[in-house]
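Task: fold both queries, return tokens.
Query 1:
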Amino acid sequence: MARAFDGGSQVFSNSAATPVTIVPFTMCCWFLPTDVSGAQVMLNIGRWGVQADVFLMYMSGSDLRAQTWRVAGNEASVGTVTAGIWQHGTVVFAAVDDRTVYLDGASNNDTGSTEPTAIDSINIGGQRWGGSHINWYEGSMAEVGVWDVALSVSEIAALEAGATPPLVRPGSLVFYDPLVRGPVGGTSQDIVGGITMSDTGSITVDNHPPVTHYPTSPAIITAPPAAPGGDPEGPLTRGKLIRGGILAGRLVA
């Protein structure tokens, strides 16, 4: 099951953990907006508690945008976002002067230079700006992934075709929250990096996107053998093996 956000009070957030702090990195999700008016932020990695220093994937009207903001900002935008249907969005921050946004096969790039600093938090469904959240997202969302590299065009095409994040460059995947069903008012979990996302506003559930393809169960990301005294789980998944998978739309241990 996906998660459904009300556009005014609901967000998943962690104020003290982030999967990435600098470029390059990539973020993606499936999203089904119920309304396309105004600014609505799906994914926000940034600096908690200040009005500066953010990386955003957001809608503005019928455009999907990748924005980098310090005390001023630069962004790339592409259309056309449509209300009421599942779409796939990806933003690639390849460098401080290179950001690209992808929407179901269409893309656009911007090369203005902006370098956010002191990145320390992540939000799903809204933007943290100073002491509060703004630009709430209204609609359903699923399959949030973050990689600490700039994914290629062919890798993004695989995601748009229905591959879930663990199937694309898994060694560089640092955050994966499928946003499957959980207790309303509870938390949502990054099952790669271990970041717990707190629920503000008792986020409800919706049907998952119908086109996603999951790893065969059990999906085990294996790491090279450790040297004596070394990390037995290795560097491939930053010290975390994925010992489960997703089968028929449900997480399995």
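Query 1 returned. Query 2:
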Amino acid sequence: MTDEDQFSISRRQALAALGTVGVASAGAGLGTTAYLNDPETVDGNTMAAGQLDLVLDWQQTYNGEPVNAYPDHDGNDWQSLGSNAAGVDGDTYYAGPDADGKTAEDIPNVCQNLESGDDLPSDVFEGPDGQQHLIELGDVKPGDSGEVTFSLHLCGNPGYVWMDGVLQENAENGINEPESAVDDDGTGELADEMLAQVWYDLDCDNVRDGDEVVIAQGSIAEVLGELSDGGYLLDNRVYEDATTQTESNQTGSNDAATCFPLGKVETDGDNQNFVATGENVENVSSDGDTYTVTFDPDSETIAVEITVTERKESGEIVAFEYEFPDGYGACRVDVKGGTGVNRYEYEACTDSDSGLKPPFNSGGQQAAVSYVEFSYCETDGNGVPPDDGEDACIPNSHTRCVGFEWWLPIEVGNEVQSDSVAFDLGFYTEQCRHNDGTRSQ
């Protein structure tokens, strides 16, 4: 429309026009008038808040024997498993320790039929000894071990899920005569002598398989310390991306824009020296226990200094520290030893770290390092770890399992007699939408 075509009217003109209409209307009072019209309505509008409900089930064992489980329809302390042997489908449970051929006590929907929180059955923790807490053992001896695998189900909406742990007590409980010969300091030692590990139990089978990623490992005090400072954010990509678990690509998908695969440096056949083999390794030079590993990813040379800080008596590498050059850092480090991998992930681009180790082997002994694989970021690019962003969100109506295992090494002596530990484990969830994975509570 041109300026000449635009219609304008002043308030005085409007009043005058209304007066004219008023006179005309008075003269037409005996007739009927109707404007053309067509009403359109959208009725029944409603808004309701969404649901985010975290439901847990579990199986606990002690020295390989069942302690308690939920759900457990026949009361034999073995969990009622899912319609496949591992129970990972999350849709159907059957009574009994073995899913094969079981049809009784069918539960068609986990979210509708499993309870949580205060609604759990009052005797859910009792087990064979009438205990009142999930893990409650009063006569632990060197050589003993136990395990709990938790199955997580999000009902209603997807969510970020954190695993929490807090050491509440590490008590001495007095010193008896055998203990006094080796321990007289009056402080508890059990939390430091008892070992533990937490991992992504991908097949929900209560066993850490060699390709399953470790979340935390060490003494139970160290593991709970890893879980206590804001918790550990579970990454859904570890569950969904099979390449995350293979030896050929331990760095996973690296979806974060600033986290990229750097390379893998291996140790020799005796696991005593880092050598110039592996992905993207251009050269390895050494000065005693300090190795300079030059990586060449995408025509970019990055030299990382690795220093061995612990060896076995046989000379095998057990622990190390690393340092990146200026301008670069690590966002993820995978350390392979034996059949397992320990994964170290960082909330920001990290130029150095120490105390990195591979996991324990199946016999509870520390494995030697067989390779180290780095993913890197640029320190001026605000490096973001792979577990940041919505890809880490756990989808609703899917089962995700986490294993927690503890053991007291056989070589531990009288210093732990009568000692006790008390600790909390938990899971916390927040909605994914409008959330960048930064925990609010």
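Both queries returned. Flag for query 2: The first strand starts at residue 53 and ends at 62.
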